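Key result, reporting period 2: structure in, sequence out.
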């Protein structure tokens, strides 16, 4: 019989893949172009060079035609809030920001993206991208609820 180990999740846990930390904003080989765009305040998505479909920055293969060759192209940066949750308890640097909202934005290009949400959220409300420095000191794309004109 093995002895059970209790993990203290209250301080979070670093998720590692080899020597690479898979955290909030660390680029991986397939997302370097995305993060280069963020530094320039440009919102980019991968576009398949075979079928011209858009897909998530972390995708390696096109979900429509399985092509591995893609290019980074500017996205509209607009969409609708598909789902959201208000976070009331958090650890580490995020604790001071509670409550805050996160959600899944369905971009106009058809790509779902998980992000921080600012403004009064609601299902299917229109949102647009903005770039802000958040708790960990990194510039990140966030989505802001569009207000009626």
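The corresponding designed sequence is given below.
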């Amino acid at each position: 019989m093995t002895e059970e180990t209790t993990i203290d999740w209250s301080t979070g846990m670093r998720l590692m893949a080899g020597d690479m930390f898979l955290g909030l904003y660390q680029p991986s080989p397939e997302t370097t172009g995305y993060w280069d765009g963020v530094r320039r305040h440009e919102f980019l998505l991968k576009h398949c060079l075979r079928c011209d479909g858009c897909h998530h920055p972390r995708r390696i293969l096109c979900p429509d035609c399985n092509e591995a060759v893609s290019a980074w192209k500017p996205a509209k940066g607009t969409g609708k809030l598909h789902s959201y949750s208000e976070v009331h308890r958090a650890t580490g640097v995020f604790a001071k920001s509670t409550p805050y909202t996160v959600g899944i934005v369905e971009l106009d290009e058809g790509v779902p993206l998980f992000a921080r949400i600012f403004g009064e959220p609601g299902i299917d409300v229109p949102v647009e991208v903005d770039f802000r420095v958040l708790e960990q000191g990194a510039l990140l794309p966030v989505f802001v609820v569009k207000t009626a004109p």
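The chain is about 5% helix and 40% strand. Residues 12 and 82 are 27 Å apart (CA to CA). This case is discussed further under Risks and Mitigation.
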